[in-house]
Structures are given as C-alpha cells and as structure tokens.
Amino acid sequence: MGASQLPEPAADAQAQSLLLIEQVRRAIADQGGRLPFDQYMEMALYQPGLGYYTAGSRKFGPGGDFITSPEISSLFAKCVARQCRQVLALVGGGYLLEVGAGSGVLAADLLAELEQLGQLPEAYLILELSPDLRARQCEMLQTKVPTLVDRVRWLDTLPEAGFRGVVVANELLDAMPVHRFRLEQGAIKEQFVTSRDEGLALVWDRPVSPGFVEAAAAVATQLGKAGADYESEINLRAPAWLQELAKAVDAGAVLLIDYGYSRAEYYHPERSRGTLMCHYRHRAHPDPMVYPGLQDITAHVDFSAVAEAALAAGFAVTGFSTQAFFLMGNGLDDLVAAADIDDVVAHMELIQAVKRLTLPSEMGERFKVLGLSLGIDQPLSGFTLQDMRDRL
Questions:
Q1: What SUPFAM superfamilies is this protein classified in (predicted)?
Q2: pLDDT digits (tens, 9 = 90+) for 106-130
Q3: What percent of the chain has pLDDT over 70?
Q4: pLDDT tens, residue by residue, 50-84
Q5: Residue-wise burial string across 196-216, b where 16 or more C-beta atoms lie within 10 A, e elsewhere
Q6: 56: left (phi > 0), else alpha (psi -120 to 50), else beta?
Q7: pLDDT tens digits, residue range 178-223?
Q8: Among 12, 161, 305, 348, which residue's beta carbon has the most beta carbons within 10 A?
Q9: Residue 59: its pLDDT value, please?
Q10: Sign of the C-alpha dihedral, residues 203, 205, 207, 213?
Q11: Given the DSSP bridges, would you call strands 277-280 and 283-285 parallel, antiparallel or unpaired?
Q12: Strand partners, 257
C-alpha cells in the first residue's frame, strides 16, 4: 500500500510533514549523505513539534491510527491492576510508573481499580516526553478519576534511584527506533535514508552503526543458508534503556507488554522481510517513507533479546506469557463472571472486548508480557497459568 492508496492528509498536516522532511534532509547532509534508519525513525516519531508522537495529531482510539488494549476495555487495566496490587504489597507500598502513557486511559483505569482494591500507589508517575500527550493524559484523568489526579506526577526522565513498586510499559518497545539490516550472500548491509529529488529514499550500504555488524552476524549465523536474501530489524537501544531502568529500581517488578516473538520466531527464515510496519488512520502498510511525521512506524519486539539485556542489567526474568494467559492469570474470568448478564447490550460489548483481548486471531497471542523483577522473589500472578521463559 503506497501513499496513493491512503487517505490524503489535510493541508496543514502535509505542510508539517514537509517541514520534517527538510529537517531530515539537513541531518542527511550533516552526516555526509546518508542517515542510519534508526535516526530517521527517531526523527519521524519524536522530532520536537514535528514527529508523530510530538506534533499533536490524535493517535489512539477510533479517531486515530490504532487502538491499544487499554482502549478496548477497562478489563485490561483491571487485570493489570491485580498484578500491580501483588507487587505493591510485596514491596510494602511504593509507586507505579507508566512509561509512555498514550491517551491516559490505562493510567485512569489502573488508579480507579487500585483504589477499589485498596492498594493505591503512593504516587502514579508518568514518563511522557510529548507535551500534547501529557495534556491529553491530564484531561483523561480529570474526566475519569478527578479525585485521584493529585496522585499523578509527570516525569521527563527515569527516576535516578530508589524506586520501589511497579513499572508498566504497554506498547513502548515497539516504538523504539530500530536499525534495519540485509543479508546478501554472506555480506551484511545496513539501511540508510538519503535525499532524492525533493524527498527521501531508502538505500542499503556498508554498516556504520556501533554494534550493528555483531548483532546482524549473530542472526546470520542462526539462519545459516536460509539467510542468503534476508532483511529484518535489530533494536540496539533497548539494552541501554534497561540499564538505566535497573539503576532506578530498588525493588519491584517491570511489566513489558507488546507484540513480538522469541528470537527463533522473530528471525524465522520465512519472515524474510522483517516486521517493520506503519499505521495511518487504521491502515497498515510497510513503507516508512510515506507521510513522515504523520504515520506511526513500529517493529515487533524480539523478547529473547530484551530478556538477555534485562539479565545483563541486573533484573531477574520472572515470567513470559501471552497477553491472554497473563490476563486470565490475573482474574479475567472472575471479572467476566461478575458482570451483570441482565444488561444485554453491556454484556455483549464485554464479551466482544474479551474476544479482542484474548483470541489468538486478535491480540491474545500476538501480544506478549515479559515480567522482570528486582528485590522480590515470589512468582508473579500473571504467569501462573502459562510461563514460556523456556522458549526465550
């Protein structure tokens, strides 16, 4: 699907995209004519005032480009809240930190449910760099949980040290800029963005990014002969983020919820063009050059690599499960059973939401949950029904 098959942006949005393209072209010139793909992806998503997550367009929900699990139903947050309750009890209270809080609906629903469960955190911290999203989160919280807004604080960086509690990151890792590699008859190439006419183009060239060749060579070794013509992604930024997070956490758990695979599935010979995907007004397509700054660009998560980086940072890996089994491990069935079946419309909506959250053909198996911990040694409730750490 190319730009001609997508809805045309409004004039002001197109102007914004053109401004971003000019900034990318200047960055390309500053680097001698080519920009590593991860740097382009970072600009397309996060360039101040112009990137997808920083420029103010609506991203989440029916009016945006995609819908996340928390927006489908409050059941998602209610189950996650039960996992948070367990961890907060284990560490004797503490904080809840959400990294990248999107529309704010998960924060609002988590706070509401934790209040019902009698286990409110001392404060709900939100690490959010987008001023526009901060404003939307604040509005959502004021609307849904006005009596709990005073408990919320926004952060610009991870806490420096001494954090006790739970860190939740829902669909964060997939939005981290990735490097793209190509294996060509034993040669390793890196993807770059270059200037072409008045726009931008993708090219493959000799690698320059630190750590890139080693990571791509490891994939080539795994693939063997099947990697003669193969393209995919590597997240070289997650390890540094996990190192910083480990420095901040004194005791508690980290819940990483995202779509992805173990390494063997991620770099399967049949997945020979990688997992990079773009989303624009609920349409998915693979071209990251379309409407820079106006569309989301994501890559699936290699959970094996994340688990290895977490262990290297000092975390324990306490569980790995599908979203469906994680939600059921935290009481989804009980929550559905307690619903009012006499309210036919509400009950049908509830059942439809459960299907979207749990069915293998929907989000149930495509989304995974990786649990990390520091300073606690009890099993986490979300991984009691299924734990796939042996597949990592």
A1: S-adenosyl-L-methionine-dependent methyltransferases
A2: 999 999 999 999 999 999 999 998 8
A3: 96
A4: 999 887 655 555 555 668 999 999 999 999 999 99
A5: eeeebeeebeebebeebbebb
A6: left
A7: 999 999 988 999 999 999 988 899 999 999 999 999 999 999 999 9
A8: 305
A9: 56
A10: positive
A11: antiparallel
A12: 170, 369
Q: Which residue type, as a one-letter code, is found at position 382?
A: G
CB contact set of 42 (below 8 Å; sequence gap of 6+): 177
Contact 169, 99 (CB under 8 A): yes
Contact 47, 20 (CB under 8 A): yes
Tokens standing for residue 23:
């900034």
- Provide the phi-psi class of 342: left if phi over 0, else alpha when psi is between -120 and 50, else beta: alpha
Q: What is the mean pLDDT of residues 29-47?
A: 97
pTM of the model: 0.95
The token duo for 193 is: 């963005």
Domains and CATH numbers, the chain: 3-45+176-236+266-286 (no CATH), 69-175+239-264+301-373 (3.40.50.12710)
* Residue 146 token pair: 């006005």
The three-state DSSP-derived secondary structure of the chain is: CCHHHCCCCCHHHHHHHHHHHHHHHHHHHHCCCCEEHHHHHHHHHHCCCCCCCCCCCCCECCCCCECCHHHHCHHHHHHHHHHHHHHHHHCCCCEEEEECCCCCHHHHHHHHHHHHCCCCCCCEEEECCCHHHHHHHHHHHHHHCHHHHHHEEEECCCCCCCEEEEEEEECCHHHCCCEEEEEECCEEEEEEEEEECCEEEEEEECCCCCCHHHHHHHHHHHHHHHHCEEEEEECCCHHHHHHHHHHHEEEEEEEEEEEEECHHHHCCCCCCECCCEEEECCEEECCCCCCCCCCEEECCEEHHHHHHHHHHHCCEEEEEEEHHHHHHHCCHHHHHHCCCCCCHHHHHHHHHHHHHHHCCCCCCCCEEEEEEEECCCCCCHHHCCCCCHHHC
